Amino acid sequence: MGTKLYHEEQVIHKPAFINGDAVEIPLLKVLQQDGSLYSGAQLPDIDEELATKVYKTLVYHRVLDERMVAAQRQGRISFYMAALGEEAASVGGAAGLKPQDMIMSQYREQGALMFRGFTTEQFMNQMFSNEKDLGKGRQMPIHYGSKALNYLTVSSPLGTQIPQATGYAYGQKLSGLDAVSICFFGEGAASEGDFHAGLNMAAVLNCPTIFLCRNNGYAISTPADEQYAGNGIASRGVGYGIKTIRIDGNDILAVLKATQIARAYAVKESKPVLIEAMSYRLGAHSTSDDPSGYRTKEEEAKWQSHDPILRMKNWMFKQKWWDEAQETALFEKYREEVLAAVKVAEVIDKPHIDTMITDVYDVPSAQLQAQLDEVKAHVNKYPEAYPFTAGKF
User: Is the pTM of this model over 0.85?
Assistant: First the structure.
């Protein structure tokens, strides 16, 4: 096939730089902060039922994050990552999909799992790593997964889900399924080699993958202007020959509209789409982080006025689909539900130690069994260090 030649009508005979800054990428906005629509804006495919589900998910997301950060501060769980201020990206992304679509997340997209129907009890069991945890206590908190809900278990290493999403989507394509894979990640993960490998593979093999980047301004403490010199992450999609759209990531209707369009295109054409959702992480990177060391309170206050939940609430009020009484009752309901679930989950036993070596082989190998026996001997020798194993073996 040889080397491809592009735009031969633009051939020049003297060297000249291509000015990357000249490439303009528009920002899709649908909903203003007061709940009104921008002039000429196109609504996504949404009715009262879907809008109510989306809004309730956003509220639940906010409540769960607030309660679990408090639980970590109280020493009840070891770690947590909230999505304060950027909830719309994951909830809107999930709302634009079909149940058969695979979701591969980073570690701030619990909103997508909430929208799919993951229960409060399931969230708590995972965060407390008890014996009812679907992951059998093998992951640190917020590393959720659900085979039933087509949500791949979160991995700690940054960016691993990006090429995985491409590969899974390629399998969906070969199987002739009416399905896509969506991959959530932050702009910091776009600095990983996995990002480039995943996008290039999806573009070359024509995989129905939606890459949804939450550009929230910081990779932990590194601001975006110290991460890259180009025009955000969207420009990279253009470079790889991928259909690309940049959106206001705090505008839930823009997120939903973009995802619906991206899914329709990915299924019909069997090709990838990159969505860059511009947002801001109002909270800390995690409960192990102190953002006051790398950004100002003035900067945070500026972004407080772009709260995506308040924006959708204002729109719901204008549609006469929501009111203040429902608002108050919903927050109270979710706070009570989460606190009650915490009290239940934290006293459930930890998984039996034997489950450490299951699920790898049909019958554990002699080497694994020997290692498990060694662990048991150590625990029996120092029982005061492992009180949660009492009576377990």
Answer: yes
